[in-house]
What does this fold into?
Amino acid sequence: MLRKLIQHINKRSILVAISSDAQNVGARNLCTTACLRKSEKDLQSPKNIIVDKDKNVTLIGINRPQVRNAINAATANQLCEAFTAFEADETSPVAVLYGIGGSFCAGYDILELGKDGGEQVSIDILMAHEGSVGPTRRHIQKPVVCGISGYCIANGLELALMCDLRVMEETAVLGFFNRRFGVPVIDGGTARLPAIIGFSRALDLILTGRQVCADEALSMGVVNRVVPPGQSLIKSVELAQTLAKFPQRALNHDRNSLYSAVFDAANFNQAVQNEVMYTSKEIIEEMQQGIKWFIQSK
It folds into this structure.
């Protein structure tokens, strides 16, 4: 940001110097001052969602560490926009979702509900097309790995369940802590959790709202990897890069077939039929290329 700002100032200074029109000089000075003020404002107002790239892996970070990355309405909108951009980015096959500052996400920012107009906010959350903490009410079109550190609770846990794979630090904590405040599970948790760990275990976690440590989360299947403290982002990126190296058409075919079998198919026969229906000409061509590579490498 500072480098761009310096380049912007230098460019403006050159234009001013070569101008012979005093009025034009004054106009450019005013424009430069306005740009500086705008840039200073941007620097003073940190973004709630930080998007970056590590090679071809998109990194999406929740940046509200002062409230353990609890998400308000503005942050939820930014997160939806970030995932929409990721899905449209043909150069990035996998994303990593993580929290900045020591925690993944402490759910929805309840303090926002306590402000004037909080009742209307509550209704808006319930009726939101995307979800209260991000795009939790839709299926992301490409794989997402979640790096879990610190607190991953309430709607934050539902946000983690939206992802395909979860990497959890040994000291992190999971749980539907919203149970004690009378806040219902409304971000896809009641649909995804039983599909991931089974109906009985899902009932246990959702109804009791109890705390779950990393080892139990791994044994249940809530998470896929447990890593040392401070390693969730690094290991999530490594896992994402592993997925990104594979032929993507076949990988996404199998991913879509799995989700269809769990959430769409009425029976086994329909699930198997969907495997065939999801197979395209491009997938066949990719498969043929893979077979040729295998034969040539022997």
Q: What stands out?
A: Residues 1-43 have pLDDT under 50 and may be disordered. Strands lie at 49-54, 57-62, 94-99, 144-148, 151-153, 165-169, 173-175, 225-227. The chain is about 55% helix and 10% strand. The two ends are 50 Å apart (CA to CA).
